[in-house]
Each structure stands twice: as C-alpha cells, then as structure tokens.
Amino acid sequence: xxxxxxxxxxxxxxxxxxxxxxxxxxxxxxxxxxxxxxxxxxxxxxxxxxxxxxxxxxxxxxxxxxxxxxxxxxxxxxxxxxxxxxxxxxxxxxxxxxxxxxxxxxxxxxxxxxxxxxxxxxxxxxxxxxxxxxxxxxxxxxxxxxxxxxxxxxxxxxxxxxxxxxxxxxxxxxxxxxxxxxxxxxxxxxxxxxxxxxxxxxxxxxxxxxxxxxxxxxxxxxxxxxxxxxxxxxxxxxxxxxxxxxxxxxxxxxxxxxxxxxxxxxxxxxxxxxxxxxxxxxxxxxxxxxxxxxxxxxxxxxxxxxx
Length: 307
Ligand code: CO8
Hints:
Lyase 2-enoyl-coa Hydratase, Chain  A, domain 2, 2 domains, 6-stranded mixed sheet, 14 helices
C-alpha cells in the first residue's frame, strides 16, 4: 500500500489509476483462474475479441447485445477498468448495425455491489475532483440504443446508480437495491441523489440515502424503480426477449422514443411537450414512418430499414 500511495504523488496522474493497476492486475489473474471454461465456451464475443474486455463478457444474441459485468470476486464492484470495458462494450454494441438493444446484467449474486471501496479508500479530495473519478461512467447514457438493466442480487451504491443509468430495470425476485454510501461516510456520486429522486420521489429516495437500507425487488417495482420482476433464472432471457422485441422496430423510431422520454427528466412539462412534438414531426421524415403506416393499412408486417 505504501508503494501505491507514493505512486499517487506522481505529478498529474491521479492516484486511483495506480491503485487500479495494482488491484486490477491481481483481479484479472483471479478472474482468469476462476472463470469456468464451460461458461466461456457458450459465449460468442462481439468482434470475436474475447480479450477485448477484462471485466465484462459480451454475447450477441440475435439482435441483442448481452453485456455481463464479470468481476465475481469483488461482487462486480466498479473500478476504472470496469468503466472502460463497459463503455467500450456499449459503444461497440451501439455502433453495430445488427444490434437493436442492449441488456446489461451481472451475476445471480450481484449486479454490482457499488464502486470499488478498496480502490477508493486511500483517495483524497483532489484525487477524485481533479481526476474526475467515475465521470466516464455516464458515457453509457449517450447510447442511442436502449439499455435494459437485468438486476439479480445486489445493486448497491454505484451499482444501483448504474442500473438507473439504463433505460429501464427488470429485477430478479431476489434483487436488492440500495444506496448505502452513508454507511461509508460519503454519499451517492453517480446519480443516486438525482435519478433515484426523480424515479421514486423525494421521500423514498431520502429514506434510502439517509438510512442506507436496502429494498427488495417487489418494493422496487412497487415504487417504480423496476418495471417488472421475474424469477431469478428467467430474468436475463426475459430481458433479452424484450430487447428482441424492441430491436424488431425501426431503430430511428426507438432512438426518438428514448430521446423524448429522457427529455422529461431535463425540462419543464411545456418544454418537454414541445420537444416531443418536434421529434414526433421529425419521425415523418423517415422511410420507416411510411413503411410502418402503410404496413398497418395493408395488414402486413412492416419491414423497417432504419431510414
Ligand atoms: N467494493 C470492493 N469490494 C467489494 C464491494 C465493493 N463495493 N462489495 C463487496 N466486495 C467484496 C468484499 O470485500 C469481499 O471480498 P473479500 O472476499 O476479498 O473480502 C467480496 O466482495 C464478497 O463480499 P462479502 O464477503 O461482503 O459478501 P456478503 O454476501 O457477506 O455481503 C454485501 C454482500 C452486502 C453486498 C457486502 O459485500 C457489502 O456491503 N458491500 C458493499 C456495498 C456498498 O457499500 N456499496 C457502496 C459502495 S460506495 C459507492 O458505490 C459510491 C458510488 C459513487 C459513484 C460510483 C460510480 C461507479
């Protein structure tokens, strides 16, 4: 640890990047040794680059990219490597014309148990502030293609925040959501005080942030945090099936819908309604609008070309 702290004094290089390299090298080796070969053999990697990611697995299931956080020994806690891998995986899927939706999941035990506490422990204010700790995680919200979070197990702290960055959440029956940062002497730093409040209202968000208490899947659904609850073993398949349904629609229409719903978070009702109307009018400039409406009139299935 002394070496790690000394390394942090190198001018212009945030200390967490040194912590990251040492902790993650160990983690990589552990993952390599513990990942069951039978699981890897089922996985078809996008771009055939199995080594492209250290901490996520990417599987292409027809028109859906299934991205799985894969840091099992640390319950998928999020460090810089996870963020880099996740961003790249989402970016690749977003750029792949054969993909229409993305499902983000973890393991049955943990979607993600938060930011990596061991990596954060030695950091100073200037390390985090000047280094922009975790800023890059927000990049996944720039994807035009929808991202469904399929949450089994723990989604805590940054894990809950990551799930909320996705477009909607499906929960496995045993999922647990929480913002336990208060118990560590900090606060949510990636949307837990903002997205959660907009999602479930002030009273529940405040209770979760101030107590650190977890809520279960049923409560998450009841308060509107999760859209649906599924049995643990069915969750990913159900999320992928919904992803396939979304992927069967015009990609342009899907992206316009996503953009319009997200605008509701950012603006007043009247400005949001005006924005929605402009996007609605813009959809009439697409070939897919003509195709969708003529297919309805001709009583046939539409053939969207994403134009
Ligand atoms: N960071 C690092 N390691 C972790 C984390 C974490 N967040 N969570 C679990 N682990 C590790 C444990 O240290 C343990 O490792 P080891 O075997 O080497 O000791 C291993 O995962 C298994 O964990 P447990 O033995 O504790 O498993 P349990 O089943 O007993 O408990 C819990 C599971 C309840 C999930 C427990 O591990 C726990 O409370 N974890 C911490 C949860 C938490 O406080 N999360 C919030 C972190 S702070 C945060 O997220 C700030 C967000 C700011 C922005 C983030 C953007 C990404």
